[in-house]
Amino acid sequence: MGDIEKQPQNSNIALPIDHHHNLPQTKNQSNFNSQINKKSSLSIILTQIHAGYFRITLSLSSQALLWKILLEPIKDAHFLRRVFTMIPSTAFTLLWSLSLFTLLTLSFLYLLKCLFHFDKVKDEFFNKIGVNYMFAPWISWLILLESSPIVPPSTIHYKILWLFFVVPIVMLDVKIYGQWFTKGKRFLSMVANPTSQMPVIGNLVAAEAAAKMGWKESAICLFSLGIAHYLVLFVTLYQRLPGNNNFPSMLRPVFFLFFATPSIASLAWHSICGYYDSGSKMLFFLSLFLFLSLVSRPLLFKKSMKKFSVAWWAYSFPLTALAIASAQYAHEVKGVMAHAIMLVLSLISVLVCLILMIVSALNIRMPLITRNLDSKHKSNTPTT
Question: Which InterPro entries match (predicted)?
Fold first, then answer.
């Protein structure tokens, strides 16, 4: 087994084709080389991918939910709300399909990583930042389920899928929340960082999805679990304790999760109550204040913007969550200012997501192609 695993890693160096053009290459050798290159490429992809890549699916699935809400016909809708009715429903269907395809692809690749590189998955789990993004795939599936145009909340398929996606969240909750107050090296004051809000978001999204299908008791249970830990976590992060001050500057886009959590909480409580009451409004205003506090400090994100990384996708999901909350708030208040806020936040959210898609497409690098080009370049360049 060891020889088989090491062979792909050295394939581009061991093959004599690039160094000695005078040697003949048989058809069997060509097929063998092709198989090695494919295995090498897949191995590189699996080792490089991590749970943080699910920031992309969080963004796309939440965008699909935003578009679904904005395109819903509303009786006596405000004229600013009617602007979105000009968008064809086909656009929402295409966006939802893209979200589904992306989530299926990333989930399949991460499943392969769990099977063939489980040691690296364990390293993620024991990392105080990486472990929190293990909630991201399940949150993405729940949001995609909420925005689904083909699975209504009243169907049995919705309920079965909800259970399938929520069970891993609860299992991770027991592990993560339990460590916060029982395990010495993983006390909350020592491991708390902005990504620690992902478990809370998982509980709140699950509560919102449960309320939409009529499971109020399950929704209240999950909401209480999430909001209780959010209060403790928010105070801990606000204190800027020495244990959580060494946060990498390249990951500062995840600071936007500070206003994503109260936004999701306002939506979850709205789904439980059936209308946008004072509790939902207070959570929305809190998220709006935190959003303004962060965008007024652009220098905080200067270092993280020097070079593109998947962490940039952390901007999109919180903005979309805030835009969805503003849409529900505007629907309840029916004022010009509320609808203006909704329009601005929705446009910013869509624009940021679109820019990230374009920038990501321009920065995609296939590992196999890169390695082959590097090996050819090295073969033609004298070493010193």
Answer: SLAC/SLAH, SLAC1/Mae1/Ssu1/TehA, Voltage-dep_anion_channel_sf
Tens digit of each residue's pLDDT (9 = 90 or more) over 3-18: 444 444 443 434 343 4
For residue 260, which of 132, 359, 102 has the smallest C-alpha distance?
132
- The Cα 232–Cα 296 span in angstroms is 26
Helix 27-48 and helix 367-379, axial crossing angle in degrees, nearest 10: 120
C-alpha Rg value of the chain to the nearest Å: 23
**Run of H or E residues at 216:** helix 216-238
Model's pTM, two decimal places? 0.84
Distances (CA, A) of 332 to 239, 269, 280, 339: 35, 14, 11, 10
Its CATH architecture, for the domain 52-375, is Alpha/alpha barrel (1.50)
What is 174-192 written as a DSSP string?
Answer: HHHHHHHHH-GGG-HHHH-
Sequence ranges of the domains in the chain: 52-375
Helix orientation angle between 55-71 and 136-146, rounded to the nearest 10 degrees: 20
Between CA 267 and CA 272, with CA 269 as vertex, the angle to 5 degrees is: 110
Tokens linked to 283: 């959570």
Nearest-CA neighbor of 115 among 181, 43, 177, 186?
Answer: 43
